[in-house]
Amino acid sequence: MPSSTPAIPVRIPRSDANTVGQAPSASPVPPRGIPLHLHVATLIKQRIKQGQYAVGSQLPTVRQLSQEMRFSHGAVQRALGVLHGEGILQPRRGVGTVVTDSSQCTQTALFFGFVQPFYHLFSQNLQQTVEHSLNRHTNFCITQTSRNDPERERQLIEHLITNGMNGLMIWPIEGHANANYYQEVADRIPTVLVDRTFPGAKVSSVTLESTGAGEEIAQHLYDLGHRRVLVVCDPADISPFLDLKTGLRHKARQLGPAFHLEILDCPVIQMILAYEERNYQPADACYEQLASLLRQGGYDALFCPQNDLFQYVFLDPDRMEVLEGIQLASTHDSNRPTKSRKWYATGILEWGHDLPGMIQSALDLLQEMVLTRRRLRRSVRFSRTLESRTWHPVPRSGTKASTLP
């Protein structure tokens, strides 16, 4: 991207001020084969590991723990007895139960399941992101792909629940086939939806602020002097794309007739999948369609939320000429590999989002629900931020020019 791109305020990821609502968990059920009091003991160990109960601090009373964790008095009392025997807790006259040793709690891990729809290169990037995020709390996560199939998604979720996962992250499939099912799952086990939401669903979620991003992108292109913008977006029925298009259209209406914005539904996802399997025909067909539109429509800016479109369709040397005089714009995941020099030489504008932060937030939320035994109904939204990155060739003398920030 050109270094001369006007700066815009950086917005940090935020959690919505209002929690959608929260409710106590249903009757707690330990993982299969684990006695209830040992399950309670494990949860208390996890709280000690996370610093909720520090060494030397007093534990809540049995009555308080029972009410807070929604276990019976008997199960809590037996759990404390186990921890007394392990030397982790010690009763003190006139004080109560005190944490005396946390060393045996360091290896107490939670087990989460993650069901996501991807099965191409992005799936590998997502897996690496999850593994990195888990290091913060030394928990474990079993990741499975639904391959965007609703029945397979339900089967995987049920299999993970049956095998004793403490909580679930779900990156939903396209469409609304399982929308009601996600609510049923959230009523049974701590659950967080990633990237996508559904109207009326009372399920915790971590998503991108896509409507506002669409408005911001349209406004920024207008401020740069662009008046005819072509938007290429996959018609997939998922909230990030739908909300992004809503924001673009809304801002275009506000800017009035002087700003023309056209949205073209194009099967970009199918094209990307085919390209990564070395089937280049869809990319070639996409180029022919877009080249014709760009030549005839007089567009001065081209935006697509999936930046692989530009990489796969336009960056061949004999295709670059069609982009002459056209500002490219896109969004990208801050954790994806760096693009080629040719990519940055196009001067593309990119609005980045923090995928690692989203995954970390979802895992933190799951852990909070497990340890507090509360079914939180919380919405956490991450903003996209315009980033300036461009590539300048190194002079022949060998001295360095400006580099990627």
Provide an overview of this structure:
- This protein folds into 3 domains: 31-105, Winged helix-like DNA-binding domain superfamily/Winged helix DNA-binding domain (Arc Repressor Mutant, subunit A), CATH 1.10.10.10; 110-208 and 357-385, Rossmann fold, CATH 3.40.50; 210-354, 3-Layer(aba) Sandwich (Rossmann fold), CATH 3.40.50.
- 39% of the residues lie in helices and 19% in strands.
- The protein contains 13 helices and 17 strands.
- β5 (111-116), α4 (121-134) and β6 (140-145) form a beta-alpha-beta unit.
- The longest helix has 18 residues, at 355-372.
| Fold-level CATH name of the largest domain | Rossmann fold
Low-confidence segments: 1-28, 390-405
Helical proportion? 25-40%
End-to-end gap: 11 Å
What would the principal axes of the Cα set say about the shape? Answer: elongated
What is the element string, with H for helices and E for strands?
A: EEHHHEEEHEHEHEEHEHEHHEHEHEHEEE
Q: In the CATH hierarchy, what is the class of the largest domain?
A: Alpha Beta
Mean pLDDT: 83
Brief overview:
The protein has 405 residues and is an alpha/beta fold. Helices cover 39% and strands 19% of the residues.
Strands, helices and their partners?
Elements: E1 14-15, E2 21-24, H1 36-49, H2 62-69, H3 73-85, E3 89-92, E4 96-99, E5 111-116, H4 121-134, E6 140-145, H5 150-162, E7 167-170, H6 179-186, E8 191-194, E9 204-208, H7 210-223, E10 228-233, H8 239-255, E11 260-265, H9 268-276, H10 281-297, E12 301-304, H11 308-313, E13 327-333, H12 341-345, E14 349-353, H13 355-372, E15 374-377, E16 379-382, E17 385-387
Parallel strand pairs: 5-6, 5-7, 7-8, 8-9, 9-16, 10-11, 10-12, 12-13, 13-14
Antiparallel strand pairs: 1-16, 2-15, 3-4, 14-17
